[in-house]
Amino acid sequence: MYRSVESLLPMRAMAFPMLGRLVAPGRARPSVCRFGRSLRAFSGDSKEIKEMKIPQYLNSWVEPEALWEFNDTMERTNAAKQADAEIGELGDRNKAWQKETLKQDPEFFKRIGQGQAPKYLWIGCADSRVAAENLIGGNPGELFTHRNIANMVVATDTNLRSVLQYAVDVLQVRHIIVCGHYDCGGVKAACSVKDHALPLESWLSGIRDVYRLHREELDAIDCPDERHKRMVELNVIEQCLNLFKTSDIQRRRRYTASRIEEFGCALPRVHAMVFSPADGILRRLNVDYKKHLGDSIDVYHLYDDPLLDAAELDEVI
């Protein structure tokens, strides 16, 4: 049952512990719920709140500009205050960006505030140098994005699988991009003889498996830098293959492949890409996924659908 805050105020706190210390009638009442939102933000200028003489704070969550300008009453060391003050730069940059964006396109925020309909799911690395929108000169609303260390597609990663499911089933993206980058710390760490400790070592084990699968090719490369670059590329390719193994991708591609007249081809398309921080170029890898899976391709088929002919079934992976 949904109830307004003002309907809860007369009740005793012990009955509603999650609302914070809403104390019994007759005792002093706090002005802000534990959630961090002012009571005004929940119930406006209600009569009950006015009677309680609760200050109408301006730094409410409904006034985002106030989040950067408020009276600092917290007890902290000077060093801590100086460190926290650094975050103010982000507020200044946000204001400048928002102002410039409105100047270029007055309807921009009104438009993206109505929802999203991206064509692309971007699975990239968490490295600070490879923010997806920056690489393609994109804007908010163009990419649905998931990032982790070394752009991994792990079948047991609930975070990744939730993003994938939403992108495929709800947003119905047309393309999925797995983008790695040269000078990848995750790939370098996985290729080193070192225990990085849990949970990082467990995550890197998937990259070590990529090296095992392609060891003959990689060991034949004498130059360490070139070997690393090839390892980055092979890791991207293997993560693309991992996408094809998921039920989310097979289900959607099976559906679209059976309706070629409507969709034109099996969707979503999967693309392997690598970004080079050294020159700023985003490279698309030419990959034959069926060739990489080889004779084992049928092992990963999750659907035996008589409605699809051989050619259409081949499009699933």
**CATH level-1 class of the largest domain:** Alpha Beta
CATH superfamily of the largest domain: Carbonic anhydrase
Can you tell me the CATH architecture of the largest domain?
3-Layer(aba) Sandwich
Overall geometric form: globular
Enzyme class: lyase
Organism: Cladocopium goreaui
GO biological process, one term: cellular response to carbon dioxide
Protein name: Carbonic anhydrase
List the helices and strands and how they pair.
Layout (H helix, E strand, L loop, with lengths): L4 H4 L30 H5 L3 H6 L25 H8 L2 H17 L3 H5 L7 E6 L6 H5 L6 E6 L9 H14 L3 E7 L3 H6 L9 H14 L1 H5 L4 H21 L2 H11 L2 H4 L5 E8 L4 E4 L4 H5 L16 H7 L1
Parallel strand pairs: 1-2, 1-3, 3-4
Antiparallel strand pairs: 4-5
Helix pairs in contact: 13-16
